[in-house]
Specification:
four-stranded mixed sheet; Bact_solute-bd_prot1; transport; D-Maltodextrin-Binding Protein, domain 2; 12 strands; Sugar ABC transporter substrate-binding protein; alpha/beta; 18 helices; 2 domains; SBP; single chain; 41% helix
């Protein structure tokens, strides 16, 4: 049995649970203080009538845009408010330019918090406690989601869509025929399952990190997943916000744990060279060969779009999924790593508030859920609206999580989260640098 089955986390699960319980109660502390696009004072209906039209800027187009607009049709008819949505593939730059020039949309849908924080720091976005019922919203969301939108004590965006990354996918028929457990309670139990798969002459894992200039991001997800499980969300937050250095002992420890799995003899199809040369989108294909060349892939809910067409046409029969489990001795609860679109308000009036109330509620998204490719961040969303059982299962996994945390590299400065962290993962997997050396390099290059 390898060392992962006995080592204990630095932070006890009980301590992590207690700490996250406190952070979950952190309502915006001073609704009357601070700036924002609409000022800091509490808003009341009738204070500023709208003109019947609300503009929204977002990053998605095509079929996603169609599904989004279909989800708004009923609201538009009932409210009499016309919503004008503009998609922009260069959203991250466009929103900064428009807001900086004094021409922001009424509402923007941020796919990562960083750009929103930049504008919140300039006083251009209205904190949600000004116009939404913070406690009511928090009560229906997956715990911890609002913390991903918190800047200097106040929350500036509310989630209207989520992505769930902490998922283990498997070929349902072959996996169940092999008699492997579909409910591992811990990562240690998952290691035992992998050992059973190896004993049957099959490679347990398939993994792929190749993504052109973005090669390495899949590796950062492994580190983030294990940071959450081994050390808990409090240490995770300290790490992503650089309250502890990137080369802290907790981080180096997690690199070593990930190395046991990814570099272990016979654990991953083709070994480390194959991981680096396999596009992330092709990693699942090995699971659906006849017979399967591998049994497990760790990837987000979006990966189903890369499954073979015949598998996609019969997902409920061909595909199985369960949550990436907890770490024995680590955080005492099921964490979920993911992402989501955060709706943020620039123009404060009756119409924009009504749109924000709807977009960020569990009543939004039914039509999008039916069309596919969308998950609600609300635990109270009607799961029957999802079009297939595998999506409902993913939604249940997310809804049952004790805590949600945003993808760490999306929270870090771009030079790290989209730069040195990616390249460092490649160097570490290749073996050209140790875990300590990679973490030291990333820390040394963290923007001052």
């Amino acid at each position: 049995m390898d060392r992962r089955l006995t080592r204990r986390a630095v932070m006890s699960g009980a301590a992590a649970t207690a700490a996250i319980g406190m952070t979950g109660c952190l309502q915006n502390p001073d609704p009357g203080g601070g700036g924002g696009g609409g000022g800091g004072q509490k808003y009341s209906a009738g204070d500023s009538p709208g003109d019947g039209s609300v503009s929204i800027l977002g990053a998605y187009g095509g079929q996603e845009q169609e599904a989004f607009m279909a989800s708004l049709e009923g609201f538009e008819a009932d409210s009499g408010i016309t919503i004008n949505y503009t998609p922009d593939k260069d959203f991250a730059n466009t929103i900064q330019q428009r807001a900086g020039a004094g021409d922001p949309p009424d509402i923007a849908l941020f796919p990562q918090p960083g750009g929103m924080f930049d504008l919140a720091a300039k006083g251009l976005i209205t904190p949600i406690d000004v116009y939404l019922d913070y406690d009511e919203l928090a009560s229906t969301l997956i715990p911890g989601f609002l913390d991903s939108a918190r800047y200097e004590g106040r929350v500036y965006g509310a989630p209207m869509r989520m992505a769930c990354k902490s998922l283990i996918w498997y070929p349902k028929k072959a996996y169940e025929k092999g008699g492997y457990s579909t409910e591992p309670a811990t990562m240690q139990e998952l290691t035992e399952i992998a050992d059973q798969i190896k004993a049957d002459g099959i490679t347990p894992w398939s993994d792929g990190w190749d993504d052109g200039q973005a090669t390495g991001w899949v590796g950062t997800d492994w580190i983030e997943e294990l940071m959450l499980r081994v050390h808990g969300p409090v240490v995770y937050d300290d790490w992503t916000k650089h309250r502890i250095p990137f080369n802290a002992k907790e981080v180096v420890e997690v690199f070593d744990i990930a190395g046991d799995l990814l570099k272990g003899e016979g654990n991953v199809l083709g070994g480390t060279d194959s991981i680096l040369n396999t596009p992330f989108s092709e990693a699942p294909l090995a699971l659906f060969e006849d017979p399967p060349k591998a049994m497990l892939v760790r990837q987000g809910n979006f990966v189903t779009g890369f499954f073979p067409e015949d598998v996609q046409a019969n997902m409920d029969e061909e595909v199985g999924v369960y949550a990436m489990p907890t770490w024995e001795g680590g955080f005492d609860g099921q964490p979920i790593l993911g992402g989501g679109d955060l709706a943020a308000l620039f123009t404060l009036n009756d119409d924009t508030v009504k749109v924000m109330e709807f977009l960020t509620s569990d009543a939004f998204g039914g039509e999008w859920a039916e069309a596919g490719g969308w998950l609600s961040p609300h635990r109270t969303f009607d799961l029957s609206q999802y079009s297939d059982s595998i999506t409902r299962q993913v939604a249940e996994i997310a809804s049952n999580a004790q805590v949600f945390r945003y993808d760490g590299s999306d929270l870090m400065p771009t030079a790290v989260g989209g730069g040195s962290f990616w390249t460092g993962m490649v160097q570490w997997l290749q073996g050209t640098k140790t875990a300590q050396e990679v973490c030291d390099d990333i820390e040394a290059g963290w923007p001052k």
